[in-house]
Amino acid sequence: MALKFYNTLSRKLETYQSIRPGVTDLYTCGPTVYNYAHIGNFRAYMFEDILRRTLAYCGYTVRQVMNLTDVDDKTIRDSRAADMDLATYTRTFTKAFFEDLDTLNIEKAEHYPAATDHVPEMIAMIDTLLDKGYAYVGDDKSVYFSIERYPDYGKLARIDLSQQRSGVRIKADEYGKESVADFALWKHWDDDDGDVYWDSPWGRGRPGWHIECSAMSVKYLGNHFDIHTGGVDNLFPHHEDEIAQCEAATGEKFVNYWLHCAHLLVNNEKMSKSAGNFYTLRDLIKKGFDGREIRWLLMSAHYRQHLNFTLEGLSAARSVLRRIDDFVVRLKELSAEGDAGLDLATDVVEVSRLAFRKGLEDDLNMSAAIAAYFDFMHRVNKAVDEAGLGGNAIDLLLNFCREVDRVFGVIHLGSAEPSVPAAIQALADERLAARRLRDFDRADSLRDDIHAAGWRIDDTPKGTRLVRVSRS
RNA sequence: GGCGUGGUAGCCAAGUGGUAAGGCAGAGGUCUGCAAAACCUUUAUUCACCGGUUCGAAUCCGGUCCACGCCUCCA
User: Fold this and answer.
1) CA-CA distance, A362 to A354, in Å (whole number)?
2) How many CB atoms lie within 10 A of CB A310?
3) Which residue range(s) make up the domain with A446?
4) How far is the C-alpha of A282 from the C-alpha of A64, rounded, in Å?
5) Three-class SS state of A386
6) Tell me, in Å, how far CA of A50 is from C1' of B68?
């Protein structure tokens, strides 16, 4: 097997081949930091996290760049509405974004370049495009990319501009263009921009959105790199424009593989504030769900399928994770000596690893990878019930859990298990005493109290186990 | 109007020609003082609908219905 990805450029499943052996350069479109990101946004970042972790699992050193769009219409509009300067305003949401990534256990990219730190690079690229004749200064003093002068335009989105509706959504402030399909590289300053502007050879203004990703990806990853990702809604025009800008400016092929994730729906509808189904990550945390549950739900469907996000789905994720946690706890309790069940464990791990990897390599088929892990747990649980396992087998199995978690990022393997509070332990001790006296009414009543406090009681042959359960 | 995706059990979701993975929820059983966890059994003669191709179709082709996305700055 080999890694395969569905490449939007060819609309085909392709075997992945990196430009440099063992290294993958990855550009992932990041957030516009004008508000808290919503779970639809995080679906994309989760997909990119799984992609990144899968590449690493398959042996690649990943160099990932994620941009932070900290200047655009919305950041300017909202910072002015809040009566704050742009940098102060966007800093709040940049900070929130990184907190949210932590909540979801999303691995950090190598670089998070902010647009406002790279205006000189953007100006340089625009300059090159003007020199080469791909761009022009419009009547409104903005600089535009000319689609007409770049015949390859449309190859990613497979859009034939002559077939498009024209003039439908053209804003009044875009009449400086030669052709409606042309897009802005540099936007000339106007009153709405307030004190947000940079000096350029074309006067005061600010960069267009697309040039930001072009200039920063080329700066950090070079003219030609491996993978570029984003949500399907970025396919056109954003990514199409990035290709046009970069390939026109550098004369080289820009990106080998384009991967796009599908939208997330909430209760089978598009998420919208008016429908009341608009969730930020923080909204869900307030409802009592944790990042791990949200992570599970977001990663459990294939990235190119619509993902239907529901609160019921989150509750199901909670049950799933409980089972995954119980499995690890159970294994750890069995830390006996010896080689009992070692052959069986070796076989189960081998079979499971193959299925797990096969799923991931098949264009990140998480359903298959997850099924492989469930089959693994099932076979191991069965072995524990039937034969018991020695310490060496347990080590082998726990190492496989650790291996799977390099991609999943949800399995509690270390000291993440919360310790039992003294008050809960005292109740449990009291219950145990009552049980010894065969006062089961009292024991059951204490068990109810313990459960109400968020802990579950498991009586095992080895004694009583206390397990933290999420409040629900 | 152009381009594109999808409709699989109560729910979530794999499967793209060989006779429906996995999970959640539910039911019965083993174990248990009772539970919990785990294990065993069970839950779609059927994959939106109608035709066609084929020895064989959820998968390929044609049509219909439904849902959703993009078509200038929304992941």
Assistant:
1) 12
2) 14
3) 422-468
4) 26
5) helix
6) 24
Is there contact between A460 and strand B, defined as CB under 7 Å from any strand atom? yes
pLDDT higher for A160 or A421?
A421
On whether both A106 and A195 belong to a single domain, the answer is yes
Bridge partners of residue A266, in order along the sequence = A269, A309
CATH of the domain at A388: 1.10.730.10
In terms of domains, do A254 and A106 share one? Answer: yes
Q: Which nucleotides of B are covered by protein (CB under 7 A)?
A: 1-6, 11-15, 21-25, 32-40, 67-75
Residue A258 pairs with which residues in a beta bridge?
Answer: A228
Contact at 8 Å (CB) between A77 and A180?
no
A146 Rama sector, left if φ>0, alpha if ψ -120 to 50, beta otherwise: beta
Residues 412-431 of A with CB under 7 A from strand B: none
Residue A320 Cβ < 7 Å to strand B: yes
User: Which residues, other chains included, contact A121 with Cβ-Cβ below 8 Å and sequence gap of 6+?
Assistant: A215, A216, A218, A219
**Tens of pLDDT, residues A442-464:** 998 999 888 888 888 888 877 88
Q: Which amino acid is at A305?
A: Q
pLDDT of residue A417: 60
In a domain, A316, yes or no: yes
Residue A79 — very low, low, confident or very high, per pLDDT cuts 50/70/90? Answer: very high
- How far does the CA of A268 sit from the C1' of B49, in Å? 22
Smallest CA-to-CA distance from A181 within A153, A216, A204 is with: A153
Strand B-contacting residues in A 87-146, CB cut-off 7 angstroms:
none
Separation between Cα atoms, residue A256 and residue A298, nearest integer Å: 26
**Of the candidates A184, A179, A174, which has an alpha carbon nearest to the alpha carbon of residue A206?**
A184
Span CA (A244) to C1' (B21), Å: 42
Count of CB atoms within 10 A of residue A219's CB?
16
Q: Are A24 and A227 in contact (CB under 8 A)?
A: yes
Together in a domain, A38 and A78: yes
Q: Whose CA is nearest the C1' atom of nucleotide B30?
A: A385
